[in-house]
């Protein structure tokens, strides 16, 4: 017997007759309900083409027959109902309400480091950490934006748009300095954060965020950068009002820290008059950035108009110091990504 | 600081961890459940109480010495679960980097290099930093407690005898210049007295692991690089005179054996660590190693198999660790057993995990008999 066949048969054991998935009902001693995984189609895993086709055909025929049989049954029921002397439209069979489909996000494995409500240890740490002063509104952030050594057109455009988004930010040409030297200079000039956009093959691909004077620093991989032009918008739509910042779906302790870092790039008091909103949405460890403006059509109806740019971030590491020091968290793919449903942010 | 959480019947903690925030936790790993508790009350804490070093206060291990960032040493009584004494250290500058106990007297080392033995009338002071920037660590020899080792940034490994504190017993000499005739920088981060009572191993911020034999020569008898990131701590493996566990700032840890043809190849590398390792301790009898670090986890690994046996999320960034010597295998293994049963459905339940074998992870065993195979049809 070919190896694949045995494997397929093993899969079938879990299915009902006719290849329909059996819903596993949670037994009483099981605490959590097991997720319903997608059932592979007939013929899955069979390498023999003819056998595979045969299996598929059989399953298809069986499915059609079942359908016909069901329709006949329904017809018989209706006939019997009329015979009993009833008039009017026959009663309809109530459909079961469709369940919410599982997504990788909803099947997420619970993490040990989830942030709990009313955790005084966390509250104490956050009240005394390196971002505590920002969240006490003790200073206004001043952001230095720069690039990697060589700067080309698209990255330049991307940075220009970041400059418009982040209030009180300045762009400096890198001029071949090292990050560590830049940190010292920027502290002297009163900057509170440094943002370095790295580029590779003339395309932005890295996002380094350093908090001054002494860390932390985080490096993100930057993917799918879309400047305003790409989404058919003009930069003139971006006003100079301070935006509102939404940090969404950061659940773990690490996620909380990253959210604090990203939030502290912007001024703590948004100007709601400008109706600008910057969103960092975390989904499956990818942080999606979107920039919108609210548009009030009437007193009830509100639209969102995207202004651009867009980009996606993926955390690579978080360091304790300002680009110097021990790492608090490092993405180690083969050690950490043990499951598709395990996330860190 | 003296305020404790509600006083109940004392819990016999067998692991203590100190956090950067000043939170000091006791853990009781036992057969039923893991009890963990904050010993300090969070309400009275500030960042000044950040714990920088821990040490046992006596042979019976009923007292813990806790060094804080504000240069106080507190004595915590584990029998009554309370602090019994506090002492302010006013020697030198910077935080206390290490603590030890010699003949019932506390020994402290501060970042500016002063190692002080706090005898009642005349405290004995050693300046371990004639040259160099900062002192990184001081370690006491487990075999002869009068022997201590110091080292730091631009400060080579030195051995001192507390009975003869006038000058150091041994001062290491830097390795030869590089191929380009450049001086090799020095930054010792931690040292380990090996059990052969002869050699001392060090880890450096410049990625090297070195083995010194003070009886033979001032330069290291063995030196090799590991990885691309600074090494933060090193601990001797008990029961072997040649093995050490080394942790890095990038969240890597590995066991090395100085014996053999290729000592630079890790004997085991411990997987699953996310952040910098700050402290490593090996159990004196069992082949277990305990680690804490910036990723807020306490992890227990088997030294034989390199497997992660147990981890515990402790919420704060952890700086230092202390384990009780009399912890038995039964206190660790049941936790592992519980975890492995949870992990896979297909694992036969109640499968006994061999204590000797140190939990070779139970592989998924499909129940399959000949009848099953016979029943298979196309």
Automatic annotation (TrEMBL), chain A:
**What Gene Ontology cellular component terms go with this record?**
nucleolus; preribosome, large subunit precursor
Q: Which SMART domains match?
A: Brix
Q: Where is the Brix domain?
A: 141-324
InterPro entries found in the cross-reference section: Brix, IMP4/RPF1
Picking any one GO molecular function of the record gives: rRNA primary transcript binding
Question: Region Disordered: which residues?
Answer: 1-35
So which domain of life are we looking at?
Eukaryota
List GO BP terms, alphabetically.
maturation of 5.8S rRNA; maturation of LSU-rRNA
Biased segments, Acidic residues type: 11-21
The name this protein goes by in its record:
Brix domain-containing protein
From TrEMBL, chain B:
Q: Note the CDD domains from the entry.
A: WDR74
| Organism per entry | Halocaridina rubra (Hawaiian red shrimp)
Q: What is the protein's given name?
A: WD repeat-containing protein 74
Recall the taxonomic lineage recorded for the source organism: Eukaryota, Metazoa, Ecdysozoa, Arthropoda, Crustacea
- GO CC annotation: nucleolus; preribosome, large subunit precursor
Which InterPro entries does the UniProt entry name for this protein? WD40/YVTN_repeat-like_dom_sf, WD40_repeat_dom_sf, WD40_rpt, WDR74/Nsa1
- What are the start and end residues of every segment in region (Disordered)? 342-378
UniProt record, GO biological process: ribosomal large subunit biogenesis
The record's section on Gene3D superfamilies has: YVTN repeat-like/Quinoprotein amine dehydrogenase
């Amino acid at each position: 017997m070919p190896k694949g066949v045995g494997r397929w048969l093993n899969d079938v054991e879990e299915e009902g007759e006719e290849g329909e998935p059996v819903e596993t009902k949670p037994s009483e001693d099981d605490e959590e309900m097991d997720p319903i995984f997608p059932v592979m189609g007939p013929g899955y895993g069979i390498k023999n083409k003819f056998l595979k086709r045969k299996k598929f055909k059989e399953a298809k025929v069986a499915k059609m027959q079942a359908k016909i049989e069901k329709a006949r049954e329904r017809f018989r029921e209706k006939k019997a109902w009329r015979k009993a002397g009833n008039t009017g439209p026959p009663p309809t069979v109530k459909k079961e309400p469709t369940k919410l489909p599982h997504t990788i996000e909803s099947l997420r494995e619970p993490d040990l480091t989830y942030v709990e409500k009313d955790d005084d240890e966390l509250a104490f740490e956050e009240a005394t950490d390196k971002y505590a002063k920002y969240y006490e509104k003790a200073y206004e952030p001043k952001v230095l934006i720069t690039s990697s050594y060589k700067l080309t057109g698209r990255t330049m455009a991307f940075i220009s748009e970041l400059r418009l988004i982040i209030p009180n930010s300045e762009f400096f040409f890198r001029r071949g300095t090292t990050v560590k030297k830049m940190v010292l200079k920027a502290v002297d000039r009163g900057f509170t954060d440094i943002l370095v956009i790295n580029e590779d093959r003339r395309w932005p691909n890295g996002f380094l965020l350093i908090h001054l004077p002494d860390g932390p620093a985080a490096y993100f991989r930057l993917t799918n950068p879309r400047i305003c032009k790409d989404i058919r918008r003009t930069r003139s739509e971006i006003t100079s009002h301070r935006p509102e910042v939404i940090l969404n779906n950061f659940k773990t302790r690490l996620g909380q820290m990253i959210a604090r870092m990203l939030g502290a790039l912007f001024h703590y008091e948004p100007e709601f008059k400008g109706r600008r909103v910057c969103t960092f949405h975390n989904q499956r460890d990818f942080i999606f950035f979107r920039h919108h403006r609210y548009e009030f059509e009437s007193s009830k109806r509100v639209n969102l108009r995207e202004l651009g740019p867009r980009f996606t971030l993926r955390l690579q590491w978080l360091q304790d110091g300002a680009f110097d020091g021990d790492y608090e968290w490092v993405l180690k793919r083969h050690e950490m990504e043990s499951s598709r449903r395990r996330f860190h942010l | 600081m003296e305020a404790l959480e509600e006083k109940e019947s004392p819990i016999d903690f067998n692991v203590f961890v100190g956090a950067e925030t000043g939170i000091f936790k006791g853990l009781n790993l036992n057969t039923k459940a893991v009890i963990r508790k904050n010993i300090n009350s969070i309400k009275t804490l500030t960042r000044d109480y950040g714990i920088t070093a821990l040490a046992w206060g006596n042979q019976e291990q009923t007292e813990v010495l806790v060094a804080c960032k504000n240069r106080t040493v507190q004595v915590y009584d584990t029998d009554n679960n309370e602090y019994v004494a506090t002492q302010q250290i006013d020697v030198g500058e910077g935080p206390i980097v290490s603590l030890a106990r010699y003949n019932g007297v506390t020994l402290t080392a501060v970042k500016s290099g002063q190692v002080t033995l706090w005898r009642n009338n005349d405290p004995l002071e050693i300046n371990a930093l004639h040259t160099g920037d900062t002192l990184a660590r001081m370690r006491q020899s487990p075999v002869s407690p009068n022997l201590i080792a110091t080292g730091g940034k631009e400060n080579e490994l030195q051995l001192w005898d507390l009975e003869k504190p006038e000058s150091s017993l041994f001062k290491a000499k830097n390795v030869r210049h590089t191929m380009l005739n450049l001086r090799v920088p020095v930054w010792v981060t931690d040292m380990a007295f090996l059990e052969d009572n002869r050699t001392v191993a060090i880890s450096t911020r410049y990625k090297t692991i070195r083995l010194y034999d003070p009886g033979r020569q001032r330069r290291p008898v063995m030196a090799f690089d590991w990885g691309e990131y600074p090494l933060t701590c090193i601990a001797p493996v008990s029961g072997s005179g040649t093995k050490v566990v080394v942790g890095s700032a990038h969240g890597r840890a590995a066991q090395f054996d100085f014996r053999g043809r290729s000592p630079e190849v890790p004997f085991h590398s411990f997987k699953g660590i996310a952040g910098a390792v700050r402290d490593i301790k090996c159990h004196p009898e069992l082949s277990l190693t305990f680690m804490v670090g910036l990723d807020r986890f306490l992890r227990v690994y088997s030294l034989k198999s390199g497997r992660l046996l147990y981890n515990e999320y402790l919420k704060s960034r952890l700086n230092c660790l202390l384990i009780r010597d009399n912890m038995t295998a039964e206190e660790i293994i049941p936790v592992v057993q519980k975890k492995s049963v949870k992990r896979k459905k297909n694992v036969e339940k109640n499968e006994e995990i061999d204590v000797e074998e140190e939990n070779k992870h139970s592989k998924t065993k499909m129940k399959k008999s000949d009848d099953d195979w016979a029943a298979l049809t196309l």
